[in-house]
Every structure is written in structure tokens, then in C-alpha cells.
Amino acid sequence: MNHLRFLHYLDEVARVGSIRQAAERLHVAPSAVNRRIQDLEDELGTPLFERLPRGMRLTAAGELFVQYIRSRAAHLEQVRSEIEDLQGLRRGRVRIVVSQAAAGSYLPKRIAGFRQQHPLVEFQVQVGDHHRALDALRSFESDLALIFHLTPETDIQRMHELVQPLCVVMHRDHPLAAQPGAISLRQCLDFPVVLPSRETAGRQLLDTYLARRSIKLRALVESNSFEFLLGYLRYEQALSFQIQIGVPQAGDELVSREIADRGFPAANLVLASLQNRQLPVVAYAFVEYLMHATG
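Now predict its structure.
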């Protein structure tokens, strides 16, 4: 299937915007990449790239052709998966973009459980927000997305949803850790607070609720890294907030408590794919596993 490899040359140049960089990633000579692009342009009768002083940019025709390449590659993966399934194999690869909160424990546990049943299946996992996830689905870089705060999109199929509350997280030696029940936001005012950055689902839930109440939490530390925030709680009697699915597991130094405030919203963790895209068989199998997994 050399013709598919040559199409991949063009796709790679489109991704990185440079023949030289694409050639390095593909482990071929730049002249070979350039020659294949010129051959395609001659065959189609139109330029696919604008040659700029600092790289390559797709023309309108190039945008259409790259979309064709990516959809064709995705379809080929589907056909390969179906052939393997017919042969009684459960090989294949599942590509998924996941929100940071679900990347620490939830998704690793599900992948490990699925691979116990299908040990020949490989996974490619990227961590990103809903913007990154939608881009990956639409460019056929990913089969699935597992993300929070997915707004309705006509070309995105919501396959499964899991409601998740926001929790207060603290070190087990924190004064509020001795309280067995839920904690109110007003109780949090007496302690330093470290918060996830504003683009995260948990922070957006918190800010939306606080905007309607006469409560102000001033973050002493902000970060887009959940790992950093949870690590910080080990060195100061501070509080942080995390979607329940991402809170530390039992036995960790950290503990979590639900929020007691009436009407505090929950987040939806959404499993999604590109609408009308035929997924590889093994990706469908993983979707079914996620929908029925418990614990």
C-alpha cells in the first residue's frame, strides 16, 4: 500500500507545516516528500500547499484533500479491525483523548480491565481539554473522547455520560478531615485554597456557583496541573477542589469530602465520538466496556 504511505507524507507536512520537519518524523529524505507532493499536485491539477518563506500552508484544495486522506486512513483502520475480528483476533488500537481529572485513576483502571479480556489491544491516550478533544475527533487523530463540559455539537455523538460531583480535597491531617460528612464552602473560607486553572471543568463549576452566592474564595495558588495541586496539599494545610472521579484513592495521604451547599452543580463526564464515523471494532468494544464497567 505504497500509495497510502505517500498520502501520509502530505498529511504529515500539513500537520507540521514543513517538508523538512515532516521528513524527519517520517524518516525519509525531504526530496522524497517534496516529489510526492508535486506528483499529487500534478495529478490533481492544482496546488495543495502555499510555499511560504517559513514553511508550507494548505490551500483550500489542500484542506479538502487532507480531510479525504484522514477519513480514508480512519476507514482503513476500521476495515483492518473488522478483518482481524473475523479471524478471531482482538487486536487493534484504541485512540482516546481524556480530561485530566479522568486520566489519573478512572481511565487507567478501565483500560487495564479491558486489556485483561483483550491483551492484544493497544491504547494511545492523550490528555487534553474539550477543545483539544474535539479537534482530535474531527481530524481523525482520535477515535474517542472522554471529557467534561462537552457542549452540544452537530457533528459529535454523545455515547455515554457519567454524572460527577465536585469534592473538597485536603491532607488527612487537615482540621476538616476529621469531619466525616460533607463540607460547606463557608467552612473553606478559614483555610488557604489552591485551585485548578479556569479552563478546567471543576473550576468552572465552582466559579459559576460562587458567582450566584455571596462567597468569595481567593486562590493563593493556581495551576493547570492536578498533580501539582494535590502534591501541594502535602506541604500546607490548604484545600483544593477536584471532580470526584479524580480524587485520591483510599489509603492515600489525601482525603476528600463532598460539598454540602444546596444546589451545587455536578459535572458530566461524556464519552463521545465523531458523528456518523464508523469506528474500529475494538473501539466499539471498549465503548461497551466503559458503559457497563462498575467500581
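The first helix runs from residue 2 to 16.
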